# Entry
Amino acid sequence: MVTLDATMGRLCIAGLGPGDLAQITPAVREALLAADDVVGYFPYVARAQALLAQEITTQAVQWHASDNRVELDRARQALALAAQGRQVVVVSSGDPGVFAMASAVFEALEAADAPSAWLALGIEVLPGVTAMLAAAARAGAPLGHDFCCINLSDNLKPWAVIARRVQLAAEADFAMAFYNPRSRSRPEGFVRLLELLRAHCESERLLVFARAVSTPDEALQVCTLEQARPEMADMRTVVLVGNSSTRRVGRWIYTPRYYDPVGAADVTSNGSTP
Ligand code: SAH
# Structure
């Protein structure tokens, strides 16, 4: 429940889900209906506009759309607007805490030159349906056992960190979800990822390439690690990799809730594979 106080500015950092307006939570809708300002990357601001266009509302919203690469500037702008007493909503796709704006807002709050008044603002993070959960639901239940989630963009961390995390996750037999798998500016990262997975997982391991889930462009491809090709992923794709027990049943794929070491990688001795 979003509480409003006309005398105080408020900042909500809201997740818009994977694309379909029907997957936006009622709490996020309510925050948008109370907003004076909506701040975000162009396509997400457009999604918020589409949601409000469905509503009977007389509110006069100021829309602040910007490019994807200016997260910190956007966070500072949102905090400054809230400090003026405005009701501000920062919009992210999926969940705002998953490789998105919530951390950027807290980074801006922590910065040495941040006005101390910002710490007194009412700040609320409103969760949304993150891409891997929307994708997993379409495929069946590939994340039904322990899993981890890794951002393949090496803009904010070195590739060596990504490679080590993938290797350890594969050794521990986690299912995995990969965000930002392949952009035009760094097509080689996903090639290296497939090489790494092939070094640590069996060739029949199941993968889901889920593109633009819950939008009109949605496309789902399920294949084995052997069949996987770099071109199957782009920046609108989240890639799910099953664990060694992930299997097909009919047109679904799922990971059992129990861990069956027969046929699965043995991760029970000393916590690592030999
Ligand atoms: N905060 C977002 C993730 C932002 S990172 C969330 O929680 O979903 C952007 C990456 O998310 C994309 O490169 C892609 O890997 C994934 N993604 C976002 N929306 C998606 C969708 N509708 N279908 C598939 N992947 C999506």
Residues 71-83 form the longest helix (13 residues). Residues 10-129 form a domain with the Cobalt-precorrin-4 Transmethylase; domain 1 fold (CATH 3.40.1010.10). The radius of gyration is 21 Å. Helices lie at 26-33, 42-53, 71-83, 101-110, 131-139, 159-171, 188-200.
